[in-house]
Specification:
Number of helices of chain A: 8
Largest interface: A-B, 53 and 64 residues
Shape of chain B: elongated
Number of strands of chain B: 7
Order of helices and strands of chain B: EEHEEEEEHHHHHHHHH
Number of helices of chain B: 10
Largest sheet of chain A: 2 strands, antiparallel
Distance between the termini of chain B: 74 Å
Strand content of chain A: under 5%
Oligomer: heterodimer
Shape of chain A: globular
Bound molecules: iron/sulfur cluster, FE2/S2 (inorganic) cluster
Radius of gyration of chain A: 23 Å
Largest sheet of chain B: 5 strands, mixed
Number of strands of chain A: 4
Helix content of chain B: 25-40%
Strand order of the largest sheet of chain B: 2-1-5-3-4
Structural class of chain B: alpha+beta
């Protein structure tokens, strides 16, 4: 391996040729991460490109993968924000308008960075396990230096969370018009609440609300906001995974109802 | 009383190897106790550095079954009965003898961080700060300088050549501590990136995983410092704001 050529072994260090002496199953966590992330991305890609069954008009359930729907290709009832663009050719999913921002938010997220640097780039695969690369420059150069713009994706994610909130409110539509409540509504509400929790627990958010201050005592309100975000921030990893799951469940449920596999479980109207 | 099977790295900068020992282990002991028994009974010249045996001096750092840990805080009861316990010196630093490494890299890096700089005209004894202003730094002050985080960090562990450019988690955390200090008058952001190599850290959190003091080095020190550097160096709006307010 490249390691043999690395000066690491010749810098007067103890001669221990093994890549690691760890005896636990250190490879398990990166493997699970890699499998789950790959499956999720595969599911999302298929859903975004097939562009089917993403809207249940009767109860106004719109999948978060396709929201906001602003091209003439969407059913008119789903275009709450208006029609900004004409028909898209069928090979071009209208998701391309907004998904890049969501994807960018997750790809530049400090937690996901840790996850994919470990699971895919093996840098390092686990602690005290040598990485397979001969050279390493981390996030000092292009392209990884772009990770530093995470806060802009955070801004975009806040706007999209507002749109998702609107979608969840619209999902309170009953079958005879007026107000209604179904399992789909509950799923959408749960999803949006968790999406907000994930978004607000972001490290850039923590910095913006108060982390960048030198003195908290002179900014009591921002200090309280920072304290609140810090508490959520400690759960950022858990929220990152939970929201991947809820996004999948929300989209999957809408897909199945929309395709007529089963009807929405209605609680009221 | 039971027999334990140990493999200990013996050697020096010229070379060395893992050596097997069968040694007595008693209930309630830690790895350092067993190493001391080895020294007393079978390997009188075994070199090991230690001081407090209470997890507070940061001297007894080593790698136990491949994991960076304090020998005095690793209980023998964490191993399965009959499990071989492998003890090696920290990999990232040059070995002096057996389990003792030369950690002077860390002292050199420590010296490169400018000391706390109070505002001009304020004498010691005149500092007034509120608790909430220093709470963040207090977490970092728990550091016992065991250098396990420095040892595990892949930036230098796997790439000796990065030692020049990179100060490691312990000292980047020190810079974060000072940059968050309400009375420190230096701006340390640019230098964190340019002189201490913060950009090399890819926030994979191994430093946090091994810290015996449980300091959230990455979440509370390095990531906030990265965000502060973005304000100063990468965020176009932040840079513009700086230019305008400096006039
Ligand atoms: S989080 Fe950064 S400093 Fe800590 S071990 Fe990983 S790369 Fe090194
Ligand atoms: S930060 Fe933790 S791991 Fe690093 S030197 Fe201090 S106590 Fe040791
Ligand atoms: S979303 Fe994870 S750190 Fe910003
Ligand atoms: S001997 Fe002091 S920390 Fe282990």
């Amino acid at each position: 391996m490249t390691r043999a050529a690395s000066p690491s072994l010749t810098a007067g260090r103890a001669t221990i040729p093994a890549r690691t002496l760890r005896t636990d199953r250190w490879w398990q966590a990166p493997l699970i991460t890699a499998v789950l992330l790959t499956l999720w991305v595969a599911y999302a890609t298929v859903r975004v490109f097939t562009q089917r069954a993403y809207f249940v008009e009767r109860y106004h359930y719109l999948s978060p993968f396709t929201s906001p729907c602003v091209t003439a290709s969407c059913p008119s009832a789903a275009r709450d924000l208006g029609t900004w663009l004409p028909h898209f050719p069928p090979f071009l999913p209208f998701g391309v308008l907004f998904l890049p921002f969501l994807l960018g938010f997750r790809v530049t997220c400090y937690y996901y960075r840790r996850a994919y640097y470990r699971a895919f780039w093996q840098s390092p695969p686990a602690c005290a396990v040598a990485e397979p690369h001969g050279k390493y420059s981390g996030e000092t150069r292009f392209p990884l230096i772009i990770q530093n713009l995470h806060r802009y994706f955070f801004g975009a994610a806040v706007l999209l969370s507002l749109v998702n909130t609107w979608d969840a409110i619209r999902a309170f539509q009953g079958k005879t018009g007026g107000i209604g409540l179904g399992l789909g509504t509950l799923i959408m509400v749960a999803n949006v609440v968790l999406l907000w929790a994930y978004t607000v627990s972001c490290h850039s958010c923590r910095h913006i609300v108060g982390g960048r201050l030198r003195s908290f005592s002179r900014h009591p309100i921002r200090y309280r906001a920072w304290t609140f975000v810090s508490k959520l921030n400690a759960k950022h990893m858990q929220l990152a995974w939970t929201t991947l799951a809820t996004l999948l469940i929300t989209d999957g449920y809408i897909a199945l109802v929309s395709a007529g596999v089963f009807g929405d479980l209605r609680i009221y109207n | 009383m039971a027999q334990g099977h140990f493999r200990v790295w013996r050697g020096n900068a010229e070379g060395g190897d893992l050596v097997d020992y069968d040694v007595e282990v008693n209930e309630g002991e830690v790895v350092l106790d067993v190493i001391h028994r080895l020294q007393a009974t079978q390997a009188g010249d075994l070199a090991v550095r230690w001081n407090c045996k209470a997890g507070k001096c940061g001297s007894c750092s080593a790698e136990i079954n491949g994991r960076p840990r304090l020998m005095c805080m690793t209980r023998m009861s964490v191993f399965a009965p009959g499990e071989t316990v492998t003890v090696t010196p920290m990999r990232t630093f040059p070995v002096m003898k057996d389990l003792v490494t030369d950690v002077s890299y860390n002292y050199a890096k420590a010296q490169e961080v400018p000391a706390f700089a109070p505002p001009p005209g304020l004498a010691p004894g005149e500092y007034r700060m509120a608790q909430e202003d220093v709470a963040r730094s207090q977490e970092f002050r728990k550091c016992i300088e065991c250098f396990l985080c420095q040892n595990v960090c892949h930036v230098i562990r796997d790439h000796e050549e990065n030692k020049q450019a990179y100060s490691g988690p312990r000292f980047l955390m020190r810079i974060a501590e000072l940059d968050m200090h309400p009375l420190d008058s230096l701006d340390r952001k640019r230098s964190a990136q340019d002189d201490h190599g913060l950009g090399y850290c890819n926030i994979t959190k191994c430093c946090t995983e091994v810290c015996p003091e449980g300091i959230k080095i990455t979440d509370n020190g390095l990531i906030p410092l990265k965000e502060r550097v973005v304000d100063r160096k990468f965020d176009p709006l932040g840079v513009l704001k700086q230019k305008l307010t400096r006039r």
